[in-house]
Amino acid sequence: MENPRDPANLPIESLPSSEKPTQTDWNKPLYIVAGGLIGLVCLVMVYKWFSGSSSAGTAGQARISGVVTLEKKPLAGAEITFHPTTKEGKTAFAKSDKRGHFSSNALPGEYRVTITLFAFEEKPLNPDEAKKYFTREGKAPPEPKSANIVPEKYAGAQSTPLTATVKPRGTKPFQFNLE
Predict the structure, then answer these.
(1) How far is the C-alpha of 102 from the C-alpha of 52, rounded, in Å?
(2) Quick one: which of 148, 152, 173, 172 has its CA closest to 161?
(3) Cβ contact 39:31 at 8 Å
(4) Separation between Cα atoms, residue 63 and residue 1, nearest integer Å
(5) Residue ranges of the domains in the chain?
(6) Where does 62-178 sit in CATH, by number?
(7) Distance (Å, whole) CA 93 – CA 104
(8) Is the pLDDT of residue 54 over 70?
């Protein structure tokens, strides 16, 4: 038989205030921060799962490096992309420094290499100028026009004459001389 004085059998209103259950305020900063951190951890885990990343990060990959020049001058800031020629391959990316040097990691295999370097034809607006433009025109400013300064034949994976073979135990530095 149930005990009528058992707090579990009494309406909440009739319980003394010290025995009433409390309601959690989920809007407190502590709970918001904790929820954000849990969400961030979950997001990173999902990203790693979908991207196929492992904790090693570069497992099975070889170091690649080289120099890219345009008309015999170092090409600074160029984006070098290694496109695999087989389904087993994985695209690799690198960016050249002020001396035209680049380095990255890539899976061993055969690649077609594209190189691009975009330069602005007009100066991009700084944040204050963009805000003034928006206030005056009622819309976001147009994107500044840019152009690839590398000859077009090097920009497409199908049109580029550049190829590379990445070996499992390391590869000699590549030399890409663009004309």
Answers:
(1) 24
(2) 152
(3) no
(4) 76
(5) 7-51, 62-178
(6) 2.60.40
(7) 7
(8) no
pTM of the predicted protein model: 0.60
C-alpha pair distances (Å), 123 with each of 51, 139, 149, 163:
36, 19, 16, 34
pLDDT tens for each residue of 99-132: 999 999 999 999 999 999 988 877 888 889 989 9
Contact predicate 93/104, CB 8 Å: yes
Cα–Cα distance between 53 and 59 in angstroms, integer? Answer: 9
Closest CA to 178 of 71, 39, 67: 71
What is each CA distance from 9 to 3, 4, 170, 173, in whole angstroms? 8, 6, 74, 79
Q: Name the token pair of 1.
A: 């038989």
Rg (CA), the chain: 29
